Structures are given as structure tokens and as C-alpha cells.
């Protein structure tokens, strides 16, 4: 179907009507596919959408439209300018989104965003992240050792998917060994979907206090880590605590869910898992395809600062555009046969790490972690399999980061 930007928006069944809203539900039995309502819009890469507060903005589902919005400085990331695409827990009834707290550079535009970005970019280069490969391998094998002792039936999220990136974040920020268990305990509660609001609030406050203590310790006695490096910059105490919190959230929950959901996807596609086992050199391609296929971090909203034409449609100043990462990564114009999981595919160009000036700083670290972790997991446990029927694996359907709440797995002991 050809795209006519002047045609009126239509619903998934081809009729004109009420603009769609988010979230939409995934089809039962299809935990790896985006909701059908999103992929059904592939013939219309930018269309109207109704937001949680009633705002009529836009929804970008095409790959080219997504990249155009994310790379254009005329679209803002400032939270206070955005309309929320989905209702946020704890923000019910709020008519405006508050500005980014101090140190949360994700909710800033240039030049404020550029100031933080310049300080951090050099800490996340490909070369520097590859230098951490040995530490990733060490933590991965320590987690696998503990998992083997606890098995043969374990929750992979608790035993492997969450600890590996948590330990790497501790390493990157310079969390002392003696404090790592306390740090991980607070962080686990913070991202635990089963925890109630009070417990998560207490964990959030505890992580903030922990970051404050850590920043003070690094100022007093710097060590060889990212946070110590940043104490020599012009960032204030409050900014350092905020930046540490952003790096923690961005580097932990996303990678943990990619490891959990990615393992689920590989176990559910034995032909692809066999191909990876037969050729571990495919690990890098497998990670890229999993990033594209699963798209766990979704969606990404932006606010137009002025009138902008995208894909032949005029987005007015003040309107919010929500980029559906899931739909953009399944755009058949960019990725032929997009719903097929194929680790031989060249999946470069996906937008799972965003695009443009706010593209994920820690993407190279995430790649290193996954490229090490997946082959090591399946090499250690050649008979690894789900311990429950696939339909009984609990999913994070309404979380900011999609994934599995738990992943019961088992294996044959020799």
C-alpha cells in the first residue's frame, strides 16, 4: 500500500475514526511481537494519536519517521513540554509533567544537555567499554557458578539477568565491594514489579542516599572509576548524584530485561539457538537482532518546538510526537520480513538505543555485556530450557521497560 500523507488517518480496520491511544495489548501467545494495532499502521508512518491527558498529537511508527524526529533539534526532550503517551503510575491526575530533576540530562536539550553529554561521552567509548570485557567475563562466570550451585531449577532473572549488569554498574561507578550487596538490594527493590509503591519509594530514597555517600567518598578519596573522574569536573554534588542515578537506571533495567527476554526468545526459537551454539562468532549479530526484535525500551516522546514537516505531515509547535520503537524496528521498508527472528540478519540501524543527540550513551557497554553473557550461558548449560510452559512466563506488560518478571529455567545435571 502506498502512503498518501494528505489522506485522513484511519483505524487498523481501514475506517476513519478516533485516533489510537497507547498502551495497546500484545496478542496472547506472542510475547515477542509488538501489539497488532501498532504493526497494522505500517502503511502510515506518522499518524494522529490521542494522549493520556486528551492531547491530540502524533504517533511515529515508520523507521524513517522515527529517525527524523529523534535526530531533529526542533524536537525537544524536555519533560515539561511533553504530553505523556501512556498514563504513568503515581502521576494520575497530573496535568503537566515536571521538569527534569538536577542531573537528569535525559530531560534536557542543548546547550544544557550538551554540557553533560561532553563530560560523559569519553567515558563510554567503544575502546573503553571493550577494556571492560574481562570484568564482564569474570562477573558472568561468577553468576553462572552461583546459578549452577543453586540449580538445576532457578529464576534466570534473579540468578543471572539482573546480577550481571548490576555488578558492571557497580564497577563503572566505583561502588566498593563491601557495599555491593546493600546497593544491589536497594536496586532490586527499585525495579521489582511486584514491590508496592511504598517499598519502591523507600528503595528510591535509599539509592539516593547511597549515591550521596558514594559521591562524598569519591571526592575525599578518588579511585579509578567514572564517578571519581566526574568529581574533577564542574558538576555540583547534586548534579553528580543525579547523573549517577540516571546511569544506574539506564544501564541496569534495560540490559537486565534484554538478558531475560532475550534468553526466553532464544529458547523459544531452537533453530536460532542452535545456529548460535554452532558458531559463537554470531554473538554480535545475535545481540543486534535481539535488540531490534524485542525493542524493550519503548516508546520515546518528543515535543515540537516549532512547526516541522515529517513524512509530508505538518507537526505544529507544541504538539508531542511519540516514537514507537517497537513499530519502527518492525518496519518492512527497513527490515524485510520484520517479524522473523533471524540471527543471520544485518540488523544495524535499529532504533533500540534511540537516535540523534540523545542516543544511549551506554549502548557499547550493553553490547559487551550481552555479547559475553548469552554465549557463556548456553555454553555452561547446553540443556537449558524453560521450567514452565511459555504461556506461564510472567511479562512486564505495563512497565517502562518490557521484559519478563521472572524466567524459570532448568537443565540436566551431568
From TrEMBL:
CDD domains (alphabetical): CYP105-like
Region listing for Disordered, in residue ranges: 1-40
Family: Belongs to the cytochrome P450 family.
Pfam families: p450
Sequence ranges of Low complexity compositional bias: 1-19
Source lineage: Bacteria, Bacillati, Actinomycetota, Actinomycetes, Kitasatosporales
Protein name as catalogued: Cytochrome P450
Keywords, in A-Z order: Heme, Iron, Metal-binding, Monooxygenase, Oxidoreductase
InterPro entries named among the record's database cross-references: Cyt_P450 (IPR001128), Cyt_P450_B (IPR002397), Cyt_P450_CS (IPR017972), Cyt_P450_sf (IPR036396)
GO molecular function: heme binding; iron ion binding; monooxygenase activity; oxidoreductase activity, acting on paired donors, with incorporation or reduction of molecular oxygen
